[in-house]
Amino acid sequence: MTAVGAGSADGGPAVRAHLAEALEERERTGRRVRVGLIGAGQMGTDILVQVAQMRGIEVVAAADVIPERIGAACALAGSGSRPARMVTDAADACASIRAGRLAATASAEIVCRLPEVEAVIDATGNPNMGARVALLAIEARKHIVMMNVEADVTAGAFLAVEAARAGVIYTLGAGDEPASTMELIRFVRALGYPVIAAGKGKNNPFIVDATPDDFAEEARRRNMNPRMLVEFVDGSKTMVEMVAIANATGLVPDVPGMHGPAAPREELHAYFCPSDEGGLLGRKGVVDFSVAKGVAPGVFVVTEMRHPRVRERMQDLHLGAGPYYAFFRPYHLTSLEVPLSAAAAVALGECHMRPLAVPSAEVGCLAKRDLEPGETLDALGEYAYRGFALTRQDAVERGALPVGLAQGARVARPIVKGELLTYAAVEPDPALAIVSVRRSQDEMVRRWTS
User: Fold this and answer.
1) For the chain: N or C, fewer Cβ within 10 A?
2) Cβ–Cβ under 8 Å, residues 70 and 362
3) What are the pLDDT digits (tens) for 419-443?
4) Band (17; pLDDT cuts 50, 70, 90)
């Protein structure tokens, strides 16, 4: 923990620093937060560029399956970034960091184990790799920042518990919709008001059977991986993000797949309230999303304020008559905010967002096309399946296959388009780290709920 004024001018106690102050102090004293980055694609490049704009923090090592991309990202970041030097082993990496270079490698293990690294950011987007990186970082007693929300909704509860046992922080990254929504959730809960609904605006067309072939040209124009773009378009990313919020708060999807209405920003409170009061919800305390224009790229929380004095004040403030009110954050800065989570973990010992030990929701998979026995499933955002949000109870009862276990799994019986993928119909690859981690999480949850 960083404090300002070890003995304040009046002799009073030291004051806990804000993150900006903590980073300024680290810059001033030459103790920058040292980050290891895994993945130098679109997200990883953003992070390298953003950290180069900041004080008190630096990326000292990075790994990518194509390590040359790290050098390109560092060059793009400019003078605020360490120049990259390719390394092949830990000793070479340490020497490069001491010489003021960024150690670039194909090995995530080297980066996670370096004594010079204090926090690891996973920016790979691959659920299995995310689980591997998290386990490596936790074993090496490094804080872990997970941009890999697909891995988090599959096995994050277990990883967060393991991190706590190791004395390090597991956190989702600031800037993505889950952590941005969490800011609003904490705000209204701190004021004593219940969360009726929490969610986001979906910022792409909602086409459930979209494939990379359909969006290759748009992805090229937007400098995106077509698979990643399709993960947004077919709703998979929305399902993943909303379940991450659910599992960090105890909220649940109201119905399988959520409602996803075209709820305008000014009417979020009227849509996301109980059906017997004119809204859509069959219960309070849910996650959901709007497809209306003007909501994305924002996030929202709908809360309930019943006290007449509070409602009087809210009306004076031109926030409506109540009793339901929507609080709205009109932006999220995606990868650009992520370094704040690494900095907060190291400098302040703070976690921006982590799952509860017992999940409340699950992302299952719906078939995008008919699937035949013997097929090996591709990645999320490709051709075989899309993500689908369920309550944990519903997922258990239906035997739903978690989305993070789908890639590389083998189809064991015919599955028709639109059908939920289940453990009875699909066999996950037992060699994958995330399959083992998920098994450990299931055992942990059974112990704690029995």
Assistant:
1) C
2) no
3) 999 999 999 999 999 999 999 999 9
4) confident
Q: How many residues does the chain have?
A: 450
pLDDT per residue over 373-426, tens digit each? 999 999 999 999 999 999 999 999 999 999 999 999 999 999 999 999 999 999
Segment 18-27, tens digit of pLDDT: 999 999 999 9
Is residue 6 very low, low, confident or very high in pLDDT (cuts 50, 70, 90)? very low
Burial 414-444 (b: 16+ CB within 10 A, else e): ebeeeebbbeebbebbeebbbbebbeebeeb
Classify residue 44 by burial, with Cβ atoms within 10 Å: 0-12, 13-18, 19+.
buried
Mean pLDDT, residues 223-237: 91
Q: Which residue type does 294 have?
A: G
Cα 407 from chain centre: 19
Predicted confidence (pLDDT) per residue in 182-209, tens digit: 999 999 999 999 999 999 999 888 999 9
Establish whether the linkage from the previous residue to 323 is cis, with ω within 30° of 0.
yes
Q: Residue 124 pLDDT > 90, yes or no?
A: yes
pLDDT in the model for residue 219: 86
- CB 57, CB 35: distance < 8 Å: yes
Handedness of CA 24, 25, 30, 33 (dihedral sign): negative
Alpha-carbon span 120 to 61, nearest angstrom: 9
Domains in the chain and their CATH numbers?
Answer: 3-176+336-348 (3.40.50.720), 178-331 (no CATH), 361-449 (3.90.1210.10)
Do you find a cis peptide bond into 297, omega within 30 degrees of 0?
yes
- Say how many CA atoms lie within 13 Å of 343 toward its Cβ: 28
